[in-house]
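Lab meeting, item 3. Inverse folding demo.
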């Protein structure tokens, strides 16, 4: 189990990386305004700063890749054909991940 990280410390980290204030109860990645490489970089930085093993983090479950972002017809087709939605998580999940020391999907 890792050292406890305060909620405020985590909020400051994400606000500094995103360059904006986050509202109470925000959800990744819907409320952050980022996707693709920006989201991938954010999660990589999260893992490094808080010493979290991110090998189980499957980015395709949470946000679109850069190539999919640029291919609107593919995004629409995939959405209607597979009816898949991206998973989401909040700050509390990030705290649990830090405490565990490795990424796990939210329930």
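The presenter then showed the designed sequence:
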């Amino acid at each position: 189990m890792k050292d406890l990280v305060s909620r405020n410390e985590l909020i400051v980290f994400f606000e500094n990386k995103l360059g904006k204030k986050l509202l109470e109860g925000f959800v990744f990645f819907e409320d952050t305004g980022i996707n693709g490489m920006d989201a991938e970089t954010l999660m990589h930085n999260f893992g490094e700063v808080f010493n979290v093993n991110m090998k189980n983090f499957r980015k395709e479950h949470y946000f679109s890749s850069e190539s999919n972002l640029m291919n609107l017809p593919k995004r629409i087709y995939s959405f209607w054909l597979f009816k898949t939605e991206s998973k989401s998580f909040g700050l509390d999940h990030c705290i649990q991940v830090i405490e565990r020391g490795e990424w796990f999907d939210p329930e």
